[in-house]
Design brief:
Helices cover 33% and strands 18% of the residues. It contains ten helices and 14 strands. The chain has helices spanning 7-14, 37-42, 87-99, 111-118, 131-135, 160-166, 204-219, 235-245, 251-261, 269-282; strands at 2-5, 25-33, 44-45, 49-50, 52-53, 59-60, 70-76, 105-108, 123-124, 142-145, 149-152, 170-173, 189-192, 224-227. A five-stranded parallel β-sheet has the order 1-8-7-2-4. A five-stranded mixed β-sheet has the order 10-11-14-12-13. A two-stranded antiparallel ribbon has the order 3-9. Strand 5 and strand 6 (59-60) form a beta hairpin. GO terms for molecular function: protein phosphatase binding; protein phosphatase inhibitor activity; pseudophosphatase activity.
Length: 297
């Protein structure tokens, strides 16, 4: 069985933060390039490996691919849409299912052409990555709303080159502005928020400020990144709040949207009640919707 994966989903999957190619981790991905070798060497998606055939026609995966410990296996050619449009792709999918017991292989919709157009900075001619290289690999913020809203966790780098590549025009920091001369990348617009993790009810004011700020940036055609630091991780709550207040999503829908983007997301139970209040107000509901543990796991 195979299904397609869109370029934004793959972008987010590649930026989950798994540093070891051998880690048995559900965020880890084996990305296979089935184009001609010359095309692969000229440029390919970062961390993709090239498959080839032996002299007898049998397929061969590069050493260290270790498909047995990968939760996600994705495959692409130049313009891939369906496996039956590419013999090499169809052969590789059959090989993986037969020899490595895979029941699902994802095909990159639009292939390398579409991905490289959307995320040229995620493409490279580099072929070999050692484990120590992956440990210092630059991860980009998650893309929550295509070409508009991003979420940066402590694992993500946001130097000026990242801001330039993503064309970020505004940043929402989930903490007060640091005192002193700390050098932070600054686009045209910034918003610093006072968030007290010890007082869940205090999140309402930052939610209102963030939603107004992000909405104003969207009207201007901007791009916004919400930034957490290692001590204050309320960015996911603010992101869901925007999806509820401005995108018309329910709390459950906002959670599922972010969960598909950030696979390791865990609920901030202390903030769910505040988001339920926001949902009631935004959707004019007679009462808050019940929060069930099973809906947020």
């Amino acid at each position: 069985m195979n299904e397609t994966i869109d370029v934004t989903t793959l972008y987010n999957l590649l930026n989950q933060g798994t540093s070891s190619p051998y880690a048995f981790d559900f965020t880890n991905v084996l990305l296979l390039d089935v184009r001609e070798r010359e095309e692969y060497e000229y440029s390919h998606i970062r961390r993709a490996v090239h498959s080839k055939k032996k002299e007898n026609g049998d397929l061969l995966l590069p050493f260290g691919s270790n498909p047995e410990v990968r939760w996600n296996v994705c495959i692409y050619d130049q313009d891939s849409y369906q496996a039956n449009n590419c013999n090499r792709m169809s052969d590789m999918i059959s090989y993986l299912m037969k020899n490595h017991s895979f029941s699902l292989v994802r095909i990159l919709s639009g292939g390398f052409r579409k991905f490289s157009k959307s995320y040229p900075f995620m493409c490279t001619s580099r072929i070999l990555y050692l484990p120590r290289d992956l440990e210092v690999l630059e991860y980009y913020p998650f893309e929550v709303i295509h070409d508009f809203l991003y979420l940066a966790l402590p694992l993500h780098s946001i130097p000026q080159v990242v801001i330039d590549n993503l064309r970020i025009t505004a940043m929402v920091y989930c903490y007060p502005k640091p005192s002193g001369s700390i050098n932070l990348p600054e686009p045209r617009e910034t918003l610093y928020l006072e968030v007290d993790p010890a007082r869940p009810a205090s999140i309402q004011k930052p939610i209102d400020e963030a939603c107004r700020f992000i909405s104003s940036q969207r009207k201007l055609g901007g791009r916004v990144v919400i930034v957490n630091n290692q001590y204050n991780r309320t960015g996911s709550t603010l992101t869901m709040a925007y999806l509820i207040a401005e995108e018309g999503k329910t709390l459950k829908e906002a959670w599922r949207t972010l969960r598909r983007t950030y696979l390791s997301l865990r609920p901030r139970w202390e903030y769910l009640d505040q988001l339920a209040l926001l949902e009631k107000k935004a959707r004019n509901l007679p009462e808050e919707q019940p929060i069930k543990d099973s809906d947020f796991l």
